Amino acid sequence: MSDSNTFDPNAMNVGKYLAYRLHQLGVDQLFSVPGDYTSDLLEIIDTYKSPKGDRYLHRIGNCNELNAGYAADGYSRANGLGAVAVTTGVGSFSLLNAIGGSFVESVPVVAIIGTLSNTKLMDEINAGELYHHNVSTEDTNRTVYSPVTVAFERISNPLTAPSQIDAAIIACISKSKPVAIEIMEDCYYMPCANPEGTLSPVPNYESLPVLQGMAAQSAPNKYAAQIVQAIEKAAEAVYAKISTEKPILWIGKEIATRKLQSKFAALQQAIGAPYVTSFLGKAVVSEDNPWFLGMHDAVFTSDYTNSYLKQSTAIIGLGVWNTDLNTFGSKSTETGNITQVFASRDMVKDGENLYVQVSLEHVIDAVMALIQKNGYKSSWQQPSPPTIPTIPAPQTSITYDSFFAVLDQHVNDNHLIVADIGLSSFGGSSSLKINRQDGFLAQNIWASIGWSVPAGLGASFREDVRTFVIVGDGAFKLTCQAVSTMVQEGRNAVVFVLNNKVYGVEQMLLDPAPYKTGSSAPFEEANILQEWDYVSLMNGFSNNSGNAKSAVVNTIGDLESLLEEISCDTASTYLVSINLDERDYPSAWKLFVNK
After folding, report:
1. How far apart are CA 381 and CA 383, in angstroms?
2. First to last CA, the chain
3. Distances (CA, A) of 9 to 3, 4, 432
4. Residue range 203-230: mean pLDDT, rounded
5. Residues whose CB falls within 8 Å of the CB of residue 118, separated by 6 or more in sequence, listed in order
6. CB of 27 within 8 A of CB of 83?
7. pLDDT, mean over the chain
8. Given a cut of 60, is residue 224 above it in pLDDT?
9. Which range (301-305, 327-331, 466-470) has the least confidence?
10. Which pTM does this prediction carry?
11. CA distances from 88 to 139, 142, 149, 495 (A)
12. Tell me, what DSSP letter sits at residue 182?
């Protein structure tokens, strides 16, 4: 540890600088696992306070680095930016999976890696000494993290640290992707310049009026003119579909990533068309809009939603990513034109026509301009709402469908749903009506099972909501220690474990025969789980804390009573085992099972 007599404790240093910059951007929690190359940083985090006596960052200890990374990811999804700190090698390699998911799904996370001091690195290079946790003298973390970050900075000189930290964080918030900042352990306490001003994201593109102005000059900028022409042609393609067809809007993740909810709402209202979401785009806008039809996602599309999709003559994709999950379980071989026209990833595809350097924001703005210029008359009547499922009698055994039907009647805009991948999400929590913008979080492309529990920990630090985690028992076992951290940090999260004693989704993908009606087909041995005692597990995780509650649900009545208890107990962490028959599955999978 550094000797506090050798430096001015009130002076700015590298560790403080980093904490201050994160705090400026709304980060209040730093998820971490102690390690000797990071210990000085964590000491700074624990002792660095504002003039009012408040910590700039609160350090949240985690049971392992993967959980810490998932927690930072969940925190970022719920709050806008997350941060995690680990030691090099054993820590940074364990963290990599979480950062990979954040990169693929465009979640801004700052990964801080503590590494060897300058002196130790020189020992390795010149004296051949190998230090623990270290791979070699190569720049290993940069090599490993470069594919899953948009910036990597190694801080070895405190004089350049401020500019390096600023550059990494600006890249993070500009690209909505992770960055890594590797800091040599002898730099944390070294003095550096004070932070100046605030950090702001750099726009990914010029505004449409600026581009139009550049293109309209007497000596036009030919590159701006090309972009404006592409935007105009793309907008005309979208407008042609909505003005001559019977359109349904299909919205996706980019509506949230690019913060275009209000622009989409204005467009939807202007054309009076129904809309659906992709699973990746679930709840990017509140689902209490009467024009909302549900989720459009291959075999998991409900009969209600399909009845309207069949009436439409044009499905227009806005911000929908073209992924295999959009056609999951169906016989479709489409990998290019997922709709007649769609806009995402700064391009618009209209049949065989492709318009590039065209942002989703520009398209929406240009289409709105065409509507205002040419007018528009909707071809739709407002949809009739779907039928609410009937809840079985209280003594009825709980099933996937009845669990989600009961939960759906309980969830409101004070809840944040964090769902794991698999039967917990597809046809399960995807059926919940989320009446809160961004009130549903799921990792549906990286699809790392177990993500939801520590991500739910991170998301629970959004204080205006209560987090409900929905996870299968197989996925839960990968990251279950995060429940202990929830208790330690006084989070009032609720973790529902869908306990069917098998890796259900893996069995589905391998062979759905065990799920066919009346089947006695065996489960693949690799998919059979050891049963756990979840009540005792919670006692062990919490050391019998009074604010750690557990419950077992076998019937509809059990669940209804428990949800009432949870709503009255706003201070406790809950671990709930939803005991399901091993051959039960969400009915939304029936087309997959019977294909």
Report:
1. 6
2. 63
3. 10, 7, 51
4. 93
5. 156, 184, 186
6. yes
7. 93
8. yes
9. 327-331
10. 0.95
11. 11, 11, 16, 31
12. E
